[in-house]
Amino acid sequence: MTRTFNPRDVGRVIQLQAHGTSLDVASTVLTRRARVAPAIAGWLRWPGADRWTLVSDRPAVGAPSGFLQARRRGRSPEADVTFIAPGLHVISGAAHTWQRLLGDACVALGQAGVARLFAASTLDDALAGQVLQQAGFAPFEADTVCQMAAPFVAAGSVGSSMRVAAEGTSFAGDGRLENVRRYAAADRPALHALLVAGQPEAARSHESAWSRWADMPASAGPRRERWRVVTDGGGRLVGAVRMVVGRDAVWLNVAGSPEAVDVGALFALALGEAGRLRPGGAVWTAVGDREPSLGAAAAAAGFVPVVRRQRCVRQTGLQRIAPSWRASKRAVPQASSGAVTHAQPRASRARERAHSLPEEGT
Fold it and tell me: Fewest CB atoms less than 10 Å from the CB: which of 1, 68, 141, 218?
């Protein structure tokens, strides 16, 4: 039986988390928190705790108990599987536990308003990719997670140039005059258009470019973010940088039009500021296989490939039924949780058309 986490599962989660598999590299390198913390936050429904922990009690003969965690991408109808325990290579029968948890997660999150559930596995782990596909996840994109151990920031370097530029000053890059400034709410339409234009064609029908860019890893908040935008001489937005500051590292997102901006300069500017935000900390980023300009710029900036991932997605069916296991404005949290119904996770085509959501920005 699969059910939602409750406080009686604390001991089980603590025991299993040491043998689990993280599917969310960003949260792992930025927070390194125990898995029981987001589980309790999701059970209490703290503000901003759009995360779920599902627990499975021996779903089949010979299959071990386990748990799955997922996190919603802000207010979008998309969510990511972030952690599953036990690991596939740790204990016999774990594949059955994964399949049950993944299937039930699609049903439960679909009832909660999530339309698409994403999961990523390393290309070195063929078994994980096989289990995800058997659970109904379809691969749509591959990327590479890269790391720079600790960017060197010298006095008067490009890092301080970015700080000055953020105050409205200009700098010359690759023969073009560009302005760097802080992101403002009025920049969202132009930034969204830039992200969509740079998104690989194969990913557009599966994932919102904005939700992936703005996704906030667990336990991070607005004060841990730094956004910068780059405009050309005519004021057109041609590049952007987003930095999420963690305990020991910084996660970096870079977007830019290769025809209008020097992507290498964007990485240099971002590394300069990241070195000041988290001195001595590593800087991480992910580059898609269909983004050659970003990959070349990251390699030139000194990033080293760490792991290649296969990113997969599954439609949940987006069932508009209030789940019995979800709390409804209760004053005092209850310890009991209802079981997740093992229904067909795939909705009919008519229901999918009726509940299809408009694209971002429409």
Answer: 1
Smallest CA-to-CA distance from 206 within 101, 125, 311 is with 311
Which bin fits 317, alpha (ψ -120 to 50), beta or left (φ > 0)? left
CA-CA-CA-CA torsion sign (328, 333, 338, 339): positive
Give the Cα separation of 285 and 253 in Å (integer): 6
pLDDT digits (tens, 9 = 90+) for 301-346: 999 999 999 999 999 876 544 444 444 443 333 333 455 544 434 4
Tell whether the model's pLDDT for residue 258 goes beyond 50: yes
The per-residue pLDDT for 182 is 92
Residue 311's region, left for phi above 0, alpha for psi from -120 to 50, else beta, is beta
User: Tens digit of pLDDT for each residue in 237-250?
Assistant: 999 999 999 888 99
Rounded Cα–Cα distance for residues 319 and 273 (Å): 44
Nearest to 58 by CA among 29, 94, 103: 94
DSSP codes of every residue in 51-72: EEEEEES--STTPPPEEEEEEE
For residue 177, count other CB atoms closer than 10 A to its CB.
12
Average pLDDT, the chain: 79
pLDDT value at 172 more than 50? no
Inter-CA distances, 126 with 84, 89, 131, 328, 332, Å: 16, 11, 9, 41, 45
335: its two tokens: 């310890």
The candidate with the shortest Cα–Cα distance to 2, out of 134, 111, 88, is 111
pLDDT at 207: 92
Alpha helices in 135-261 (DSSP H): 158-165, 188-198, 201-204, 209-214
Band (pLDDT 50/70/90 cuts) for residue 68 is very high
Tell me whether strands 116-122 and 78-85 are parallel, antiparallel or unpaired: parallel
273, 87 in Cβ contact below 8 A? Answer: no
E-assigned strand segments in 183-262: 225-231, 237-245, 249-256
